[in-house]
Structures are given as C-alpha cells and as structure tokens.
Design brief:
mainly alpha; 76% helix
Length: 100
C-alpha cells in the first residue's frame, strides 16, 4: 500500500486528474443506479465538467504544440479513430439524460 501511495505522489498532474475523473464517474454510477442518492446529479455534473475541461486542455496542448503528437496521422484516420469515437462517447453515451 505504501508503494502505491509513493507512486501516486510521483504521478503527473494529468494522471491525477484522470484518476480523479474516473473515481467521480464510478461514484456517480454507483450512487445513481445502485444506492439512488438524491444529490447524485452534483457528482455527475462535476465529473462531466472535469471531463470537458480535460478534453479542452488536451486539444489546446495539441494545437499549441503544432500537432506533434498527432500530426503524423492522416486527417481521415484522425476522424475515424479519434474524433468520431470520442464524439460518440461524449454525445450519445453521455450521462446528460440523467443530469436533466
């Protein structure tokens, strides 16, 4: 257990944000669909905002680094394997209906 805590302290801020977002999403699913906690919308909203802000930060990083991480791909490959699947996950599979 101590080794895992040391590894978490050495993790980059990006990994900490990913871990926090994952914990929030799992908490949301449990609280909404198993325990039926009335204030679960707050957890869902916070995790959705965190995911959106994380996505905007990734896009900004890609843009301001002159597409070095993804520039070797063709535009069609980016659309098919990155933009469309992520857009589907955010729009179609999102938990927006639970938040309304």
């Amino acid at each position: 257990m101590a080794h895992q805590l040391i590894m978490l302290e050495m993790a980059s801020p990006v990994h900490k944000v990913r871990l926090t977002a994952s914990i929030l999403w799992i908490s949301y699913l449990y609280l909404a669909h198993i325990s039926h906690w009335p204030a679960v919308s707050l957890i869902g909203f916070a995790s959705a905002i965190m995911t959106l802000s994380k996505t905007i930060l990734y896009w900004a990083q890609i843009y301001y680094c002159n597409y070095r991480a993804v520039g070797h791909n063709k535009v069609q490959d980016l659309l098919v394997f990155w933009v469309f699947p992520n857009g589907y996950a955010y729009v179609i599979c999102g938990l927006s209906s639970d938040l309304l």
